[in-house]
Amino acid sequence: MLMRRTVALVACTLVALATARDARAGAMLMGGLGGPVGYGTSCMPPNDDGAWPAGGTGLDLTPAFPHGLHFYSGTYTTGWINNNGNLSFNGALSTYTPDAFPGAPQPMIAPYWADVDTRNATECDDGNYESGGGYPAGATCNSGPDYSSAPTTNGVWWSLTPGQMVVTWDQVGFFSCHTAPVMSFQMILTSTACGAVGADGGAGGANFDIEFRYSQCGWEAGDASGGSGGFCAAGTVGSSCTPAQAGFDSAETPDTNYASLPMSRMAGISTELCTQSNLTPPQPGIWQFLVRGGQILCPNAGQACMTTLKGICAAGQLTCGVNGMTTCEALTMPQPMQCNGLDNNCDGVIDDGPCPAGTSCDGTSCVPDCVEGGCPAGYSCSSGGLCVPTDCIGVTCPPGEICQGGKCVDACSGITCPIGQVCRQGNCVDPCAGLNCGMGQVCENGMCVPSCPCTACTASQTCVTTGAQAGKCIATDCVNTTCQPGFVCQTGSCVNECTGAVCPGTQICQTGKCIANTSQHDAGTDGGGGGKIIQPMDSGLGGGGHDGAVPDGGLQTDGALAFENLTSTSGCSCRTATGGERGGAGALGAGLGLVAMLARRRRRAPR
How many whole angstroms separate alpha carbon 581 and alpha carbon 578? Predict the structure, then answer.
C-alpha cells in the first residue's frame, strides 16, 4: 500500500503531457436497463481496486445463465465484477496494472483492464477509502429507493436478465482520483438461441456472445501504472508505463486460449478501440466474439473481402483465425496462365495464352491469326494481325471484366459453375474450401452459420451429427446415400456435379470441377465412367457448338461449354448439349476451310 501511494505521489509531480488528448467518441452504449442512468439497478460503491461482491462467494450469474457460462474448459455460475474493467471467475481481482494475454492470473473477460478509480475528491480524502482498499465494509451504491447515493457519472453498473448480463463502466476516471478525461465502455454477454439449453441439455453451460462497446475513450494508463494525465509519455511503454489490456484469457496451463484486442498494452489502444471494429462492415467502437462449446469463434467468417494479392487471387473471404480474429484468405490461388482476359497466375498482368497453333490471344480469347488480311464474318483483322470480334475492337475492359457483344461484362457472365461451386473473378471455386468456421458453426454456401441442432432443420431435413457433414441439415432422403467423387445427392439420387455446368473460357467440367482443357481433340475417357472428355469444339465461325466429331478450331465465342442434365450413380459422364447445331453446315464448312488455310500457309499480316 505504501509503495503504491509513493508511486502516486511521484506521478502527481510529473509534468503533464505537452499536447492534450481529446476523448475519442465511439459506439452508443446499451441503455434502457433500468436504474437512474439506464445501465441497470445495481452498482458498485465508489472505490479504487475494489470488486463486487467484496466477499468470496461471487456474484450469482444464474439469473441470466441458469446453467452457467461455458468459457473455454470451465463452466462458471459465479463471477466478480472488478472496478478495474474486467469480470473474473475465480475470485475478486485488485490488480491495477494489466498483465499481457496470455498470462492472466485467472480466467477473465476484460473489456478494458486498467487502473479505474471511481472515487470523487471527497472520498479520496476519506481515510475509509484508502487506495487499494476497495470500499468500506457495508458501503452501498444505491441505498434508498430514490438512488440518493447512486453516481450519475463515474460509476460501475450492471444488469442481469434472463439470457443476458451487461456491465457498464460509465464515464470512469483513473488513479489517483482523476475524474477527467474519462472512459465509457460496456461488456455485454448474451446467450445464443440454443445456448441456454444446448445439445447437452444445458449441463455444459451456455453458448454465448461477447460484445465490447466503447463510447468515450479518454485515457490509457493510471498514475501507478506509469501514466501521466492518463497516457504514457513517449518512450515509456514497456519500461515504466503500461496501457490497458482488452480481450479475454482462459488462464489455463498451457495458456493458449485467449484473445488480445489490437493495441493492447500499447500506446493508442483508446483510439483503436473507439474508432475500429472487428465487424464487417466495421461498426466503430463495437467488437464481437462468439463462444460456442467454450471456444471463441468469429462473427463474420465467410464474408467477402479483398486480399493484398493480384488477379484472380484478389477476391477473398474472412476466415476465423487465431483466437477469434478474422483474416482475409484468397478464394483462389494462382493457376496456370489462360487466355480469358484475367490474371490467372496472379502476377499483376493479364494472361496472354497459351493458345493453339494458328491462333493468338487477343486478351480475352484465342482467335485465329489473320490469313492474308482476311477473317470470317463478324470478325476483323486487328492491327496485331488477329481475327477479333468486330464489335470488341478498341474496347478495353477493367480487371475482372471481359468484352462480349461490344460491352464489358462481369467475367462471370454466362458462366454456370458445377453444383456446389460459385463464380468468383471468372473462376468456379468452392466457397467453403479452406474456410475455418470453428466449433459450433458450419459452412453453407460460403457463409459460417450455426450448426444444427442450434439451427432447426426443416421437416424434410435431418441433422447430421457425425462425419464430414456433421452439424449440417441435409435432405432426409440423402442421409444414407453415398456418392462417388464428382457426384452429389439430390432427392435421394447421385447427380453429376457437372450437370448444367457452363465452365469459364475453354475449361471443361470433369469430376465436378472446371479444369483447363489440355487436349485439342475429342478423344479418350475421364477414367470415371467411360464418358468422353468434352473439348471446346466451337470454331467460332457459326457461333455455336456441335457434336465434337472434328478437331477444335481454337476459337470459342460463347466462352463456355454446356452440359446436359445427367443423373447417375457412378462415374462422371459429361457431354455437350444436344440440339446445339446452331452454326449450321455452312458455318462448319467455313471453319474447316479457315483451319485448312492456316495449316497450308501460316502467313499472317504484319503485327
Answer: 8
CB 473 within 8 A of CB 453: no
Grid coordinates given for 373: 488480311
Give the integer Cα–Cα distance in Å for 190 and 211: 8
* Residue 399: closest CA among 514, 502, 337, 314: 314
* Structure confidence at residue 321 (pLDDT): 61
The whole-angstrom separation of Cα 103 and Cα 324 is: 18
Please identify which residue in the block is written with the cell numbers 501511494.
5
Taking phi over 0 as left and psi of -120 to 50 as alpha, with beta for the rest, 215 belongs to: alpha
Q: Vertex 339, ends 383 and 317: CA angle to 5°? A: 135
pLDDT at residue 13, as a whole number: 35
For the chain, percent helix, then strand, then coil, each to nearest 5? 10, 30, 60
Omega cis (within 30) before 356: no
Contacts of 509 (CB under 8 A, 6+ apart): 418, 497, 498, 501, 503, 515, 534, 561, 563, 574
* Of 99, 115, 147, nearest in space to 50 by CA: 115
Radius of gyration of the chain (CA): 33
The Cα 72–Cα 89 span in angstroms is: 12
Integer Cα distance of 531 and 523 in angstroms: 10
* Residues in contact with 238: Cβ distance below 8 Å, sequence separation at least 6, in sequence order: none
Secondary structure class of 515 (helix, strand, coil)? strand
Please name which of 167, 156, 189 lies closest in space to residue 65, comparing C-alpha atoms.
189
Other Cβ atoms closer than 10 A to 406: 12
What are the CA-CA distances from residue 403 to residues 243, 369, 408, 423 (Å)?
55, 19, 4, 17
Nearest to 341 by CA among 579, 73, 559: 559
The distance of Cα 585 from the centroid of its chain, to the nearest Å, equals 53
CA-based nearest residue to 274, from 112, 53, 99: 112
The string of pLDDT tens digits covering residues 365-395 is: 777 888 776 787 888 888 778 887 888 888 8
3-state secondary structure 107-160: CEEEEEECCEECCCHHHHCCHHHCCCCECCCCCCCCCCCCCCCCCCCCEEEEEE
What is the per-residue pLDDT for 322?
54
Q: Helices (H) and strands (E) in the chain — how many of each?
A: 4, 37
Q: What is the pLDDT of residue 575?
A: 30
Contacts of 51 (CB under 8 A, 6+ apart): 44, 80, 81, 82, 83, 88, 92, 93, 94, 134
- The reported pLDDT for the residue numbered 436 is 67
With beta carbons less than 8 A apart as the criterion, state whether 149 and 140 touch: yes
Asked if 164 and 33 count as a contact pair (C-beta separation under 8 A), the reply is: no
101 vs 108: CA distance, rounded Å:
10
Residue with cell 460459385: 422
Residue whose C-alpha is closest to residue 326's, from 284, 296, 292, 283: 296
CA distance 112 to 156: 13
pLDDT digits (tens, 9 = 90+) for 259-309: 899 999 999 999 999 999 988 788 999 999 888 777 777 666 667 788 889
> What 8-state DSSP symbol labels residue 22?
P
**Beta strand ranges found along 250-358 (DSSP E):** 258-260, 286-292, 295-297, 304-306, 315-320, 326-330
Q: Say how far apart CA 350 and CA 332 lie, in whole Å.
A: 16
Nearest to 167 by CA among 152, 191, 198, 189: 189
User: Of 567, 485, 576, whose CA–CA distance to 535 is shortest?
Assistant: 576
**Are 196 and 202 in contact, with CB atoms under 8 Å apart?**
yes
How far apart are alpha carbons 356 and 229 in whole angstroms? 72
Q: Please list the residues that pair with 403 across neighbouring strands.
A: 408
